[in-house]
């Protein structure tokens, strides 16, 4: 019996969903308001990087929103897990956290970098939930020798607690 789908269907998902949708709203508001003003103050090279990173962030958040909405539909019985899985396969995550940084990144506005960091953490949590939903366990750190500590860290990861 797989415990992953039960964890995904638990209250931990509701919290992740709310956090994700709130982040999407905050980022949209920032990019449409204060972010525009912030970007106008940047030198040319940093302005180009701002445009690139804000597009990456927006794209990634929309991909995450698709995943979150599909999972919510499963949890509410609107679609089957198989249908959701099929639809989720169509969502290809791009601009992963490993592609962050580079020349001029430190010159980006603090608010944008903060939203990028939050988006990266949301991405990591959704990927953990996705792995659990598929009935798999997150990859185990080879350096962890204590089985109980390993299980506790997996539970903490699943519910987004450090």
How would you describe the overall organization of this protein?
- Residues 80-106 are annotated as: Disordered.
- This is Regulator of CtrA degradation.
- The protein has one domain: Helicase, Ruva Protein, domain 3 (Orthogonal Bundle).
- It has helices spanning 4-8, 11-32, 34-40, 44-75, 81-90, 110-133, 147-158.
- It is elongated and about 50 Å long.
- The model has no long low-confidence stretch (mean pLDDT 81).
- The chain is built from 7 helices and no strands.
- The chain is an all-alpha fold and 162 residues long.
Rg from alpha-carbon coordinates: 18 Å
Average pLDDT works out at: 81
The tally of beta strands, per DSSP, is 0
N-C termini distance: 27 Å
Structural class: mainly alpha
**What's the level 1 CATH class?**
Mainly Alpha
CATH architecture: Orthogonal Bundle
Largest sheet: none
Strand content: under 5%
> Which assembly state applies to the chains in this document?
single chain
Helix content range of the residues, please? 55-70%
Q: Note the overall shape.
A: elongated
Provide the low-confidence segments as ranges.
none
Q: Count helical runs.
A: 7
Instruction: Predict the CATH topology.
Output: Helicase, Ruva Protein, domain 3
Number of domains: 1
CATH level 4 superfamily: Protein of unknown function DUF1465
* Element-by-element helix/strand order: HHHHHHH
Annotation keywords:
162 residues; mainly alpha; Helicase, Ruva Protein, domain 3; 7 helices; Regulator of CtrA degradation; AraC-like_sf; DUF1465
Sum this structure up briefly.
It holds the Pfam family DUF1465. The protein has 162 residues and is an all-alpha fold. It has helices spanning 4-8, 11-32, 34-40, 44-75, 81-90, 110-133, 147-158.
